[in-house]
């Protein structure tokens, strides 16, 4: 690390710019995994992570927290304990990019110059895009597992539910963990049955899209699940407003005649909020429109304009589901290509769009949905991946969290591809 003088496009000559060989924006699953794998490859690398939070969260378990099957405290660790040894932690918010100058500017005015940049700040939750939601959330039956503040409240509501209408929503925007909006619904349905209130409860799944799941095979399996459970599915229903004073959810419903507003009364509602690329990404030269995601090649993860910039995870333009499991396959390809670029070698790392969504369909039941850019099931296991399995519940509940903290964030491989050779 050193300081230098640089001419910035936003100001006069600036002094005391901090310099690092590799700067990673974002210290979540993607940033920590990439940093750890890079350090395993070459411990001499000068790497800095820009990350404002002092806590690191295992968000895939928040559905289980909402279903009373996981402790929220077990999803949280100190960020300092996750930063790989030898990596510099810059505890602040990234705010602007000047890729022509290889420069990141932070909210508190720091100017950090890089030779190589990795962008992975995650996704932005836009609570404000549902009218009334910010004031309604966290009380009077309105909750969401997409926040650490409300996932425990979900369980409080479910275990004390006395009957009525329980609504679960899916928005029109890209979201992280596309299966989560319905996972909690199946746990809720089990809870209502176990507590003897299911017969006086209407469970509704109101989704802005036209299918239960975008991947053939898994979609049909989930259609059978909702039919078996007698769940009322409403397609093309996009939540636009919450009226807590009357307990009404207002949906923009797309029909053959256009879009019309429909009001549905609720006693409980789990909201999956709209999400988008973070504003500082949207407004930067790194973004591609529409959407404002970081513009990268879907195979190499290298930026399409600035070759010394890479991106992965939720804020990237990669056309696949936004999950931690996707990062597990994205990170090795990115690390291989970034290190090759440092050594002036050809980029050979390749990402095929792999992602995984463990679709919890009840307590003790999970469909391990794995697929690639081809939108076809691509299982790591030697059995039909579209079936509900207790073994996959155990993997979701116990194995995957352990692998996350002890293997993935340490930069260690834990691939299960060798299991594919066992398929008959």
What would your notes on this structure say?
By secondary structure, the chain is α/β, with parallel strands linked by helices. It is built from nine helices and 24 strands. The protein has helices at 29-41, 62-66, 133-136, 151-159, 180-194, 218-228, 279-282, 324-342, 390-408; strands at residues 2-7, 13-25, 47-50, 55-57, 76-78, 88-90, 94-98, 103-106, 111-119, 124-125, 142-143, 164-170, 201-207, 232-234, 237-243, 248-255, 258-265, 268-270, 275-276, 287-288, 293-294, 309-311, 355-362, 365-371. The strands form seven sheets. Strands 1, 2, 3, 6, 7, 8, 9 and 22 form an eight-stranded mixed sheet that branches. The protein has a five-stranded parallel sheet with strand order 11-18-12-13-14, with helices on one face. It has a three-stranded antiparallel sheet with strand order 15-16-17, with no helix packed on it. The protein is globular, with a radius of gyration of 22 Å. The N and C termini lie far apart (53 Å). Residues 4-15 and 418-424 have low confidence and may be disordered.
